[in-house]
């Protein structure tokens, strides 16, 4: 078989020369597109908003709010606070519509389904926002499917038999009340008059009539980027929240326990009232909130606060670590019904749940609140206990206080009147409710509740020396057993049965003697 001859072919570099050689050169790499500052800012805002939205939705699904929307947005880690806040709020308002549109359009693959919060944020911008997202992998993915998303929205309008998105959402706008901006001066770093002088350069400032270190600025005053906020000389704290530590009135040098302390505004207020002296034990169970608490303490400059990562109900009142505790601030988990507009909880998916859930949740919260308050009163050296909630519900407020009054009385506590000049008091559902303090959501722009227990050391022991020994012992046990059904229900029932048998024996022996 003849073999085909291949002529000697010179290498390519030898075959071409001169101008032709330039045609084979590899073109230089394309320069990377430079994004504008506005595009980069919008990209970061969408990522920060997605992180906040993820935390909010996870907490809402678990019925365990890690923090309010505002608290999460205005944390130090969020850079573009204004844009992030707007994105989170608007996305939550439109969330049900966005979810329906995504389901109809069916454009998400498994990768992007794992990043749903970011997808929700971008979809809001595409469907309802003013700026069209142009950079970012997720943005490009969804922009390529913009027509499908818009078609899905149109289909949804037809299905629901409405003509506009507003009708589709059916959002009932809450009647907003113009609320002043309250600022608490951190007297560990700055005196009140100096703060007033500095803030008056840009704002109208008044001193609050109730809380000495609280300042009042016009509604809408935005101080989140103010240098006094950034360096911890002032804190953006509402009036009701600022009244709690002031109601406790801890003395300089005392040891105080803050039972549910995160995010820490009330804790550092205690430190300021105590002039940085004494000791504050700040107890917090949630690990994420402990980090927030530590950041707040660091910003305040307080050096007398010891963080305890644990459950307040798990603390042993008789432990030597707490033998010097003189006061306890108890601001436990509550429904937040008094600050629903401030916290923006009305935007969360669970807000649309049925009333059965609300009732069950309230009873569950009240059960915990009763246990926590009874536990606070059981610390032997404590002289003052403040119980507060940001709730408007009687079951979390007056009912909780009423349930522990027998225990409080047996331990030498009685209700005192915080801020006597305050007009709005507790609901008249039991004798002594006039000592309780309430704030009204309309009149005071937020709902709040404060109860103050003060130890008087006047135990109910009248004529105790005249009682026979056996009868006195029975009375003592009877008084004790009235107090602990919330702490140890099984033990309470056992002792109650034993006490009943002793009463019968005592009555029988008395009748025989007669």
TrEMBL record:
The keyword NADP does not apply. Gene3D superfamilies: Sun protein, domain 3, Vaccinia Virus protein VP39. Belongs to the class I-like SAM-binding methyltransferase superfamily. RsmB/NOP family. Residues 1-34 are annotated as: Disordered. Keywords: Methyltransferase, RNA-binding, S-adenosyl-L-methionine, Transferase. This is Probable 28S rRNA (Cytosine-C(5))-methyltransferase. S-adenosyl-L-methionine binds at residues 260-266, 284, 311, 331. Residues 171-456 form the SAM-dependent MTase RsmB/NOP-type domain. The keyword Methyltransferase applies. InterPro entries: MeTrfase_RsmB-F_NOP2_cat (IPR049560), MeTrfase_RsmB-F_NOP2_dom (IPR001678), NSUN5_7_fdxn-like (IPR049561), NSUN5_RCM1_N (IPR048889), RCMT (IPR023267), SAM-dependent_MTases_sf (IPR029063). Signal peptide: none annotated. The active site is at residue 390.
